[in-house]
Amino acid sequence: MSTQTIAILLGFLCMGTLIPSGLAQNIPTPPCFLPLTIIPGCSKEILVAISAGTGRIGPACCKVINELTDVCWPRLFPSLPATGKFLRGICSRSGISPAPAPAPKP
């Protein structure tokens, strides 16, 4: 399956969860959706992990997952509010943790 096809399926999945919940006005914005489409196979890895309840997510995809804000995940998956935490958990079990926050400037 091509990356473009997976990106389209991910978009429909997001819209499918938005419309029944009455949140169609909160369709994911490009800053939330675009990073998932840039890494080849990332959308597929996420969909497989969500549908299987576990899975292997590659380092490049984990980097994107860890960089997306907590505001993005409910917009991408409003009926699955813990998606970001779940995916970050898979990444951390793979040894790919979020980057530490930058030290405050004096």
UniProtKB/TrEMBL annotation:
GO cellular component annotations of the record: extracellular region; vesicle
The protein's name: Prolamin-like domain-containing protein
GO BP terms, alphabetized: double fertilization forming a zygote and endosperm; regulation of double fertilization forming a zygote and endosperm; regulation of protein localization to cell surface
Segments forming domain Prolamin-like: 32-91
Signal peptide range: 1-24
Lineage, uppermost ranks: Eukaryota, Viridiplantae, Streptophyta, Embryophyta, Tracheophyta
Keywords: Signal
InterPro entries, per database record: Prolamin-like
